[in-house]
Write a structure and sequence with these properties.
Blueprint lengths: L1 H12 L13 E5 L2 E4 H5 L6 H19 L6 H11 L8 H8 L2 H11 L3 H27 L7 H21 L3 E3 L3
Antiparallel strand pairs: 1-2, 1-3
InterPro entries: Trigger_fact/SurA_dom_sf
Keywords: Signal
């Protein structure tokens, strides 16, 4: 599970930067007939094109996981939080943010959403770990646990599968992207 968590963090960080300008209520995509608005993405990512694409890929993976009967409990989300940041419960939120280098990100996102930094952080922290849990369980069920000796091969399968799903969902118009 630790390898899956590290892969999730790696994939989340390995993203480019092409900034879009959106209002919170702007629809950026339609997935399964439901609008995904800028504010939905802002809960976990900034509104840069590649972050948006990764958000949409996560939505597809969560949907696919749920189709396979995968469920994530609040207890599992809490376990993910503690695995990623064992000392989280011992720190104040602001100290924790400084420790992981997210203070400015949280300030910006909270401001854009019109919530307090603490409210944003709690939402972001919960949502990112929930999404990681779904991804990890889905990939584990599809491809098994990654083997350290064959990790790169496993990661390539995961990335290829994710890209194929993303392309398929767009091709059959289950996912419609509304920005350029």
């Amino acid at each position: 599970m630790r390898n899956l968590l590290l892969l999730s963090i790696f994939l989340f960080v390995l993203i480019g930067c092409s900034t879009q300008t959106f209002d919170n209520e702007d629809a950026i995509a339609v997935f399964n007939g439901e609008e995904i608005k800028a504010q939905d993405v802002l809960k976990v990512n900034s509104l840069e094109e590649n972050y948006i694409i990764n958000y949409l890929k996560d939505e597809i993976l969560i949907y696919e996981a749920q189709k396979l009967g995968i469920k994530i409990t609040d207890a599992e989300i809490e376990e993910y939080k503690r695995t990623a940041f064992p000392s989280y419960d011992l720190m104040e939120t602001h100290e924790f943010l400084e420790t992981i280098g997210y203070t400015e990100f949280v300030e910006q996102q909270a401001s854009m959403l019109g919530v307090t930094e603490k409210e944003y952080f709690e939402t972001w922290f919960h949502e990112t770990h929930k999404r990681s849990a779904f991804r990890d369980k889905y990939f584990e069920q599809k491809f098994g646990e990654p083997n350290y000796d064959k990790f790169e091969e496993w990661a390539d399968k995961v990335a290829g599968h994710t890209d194929a799903l993303f392309n398929d969902y767009q091709a059959n118009e289950t996912l419609i992207i509304l920005f350029n």
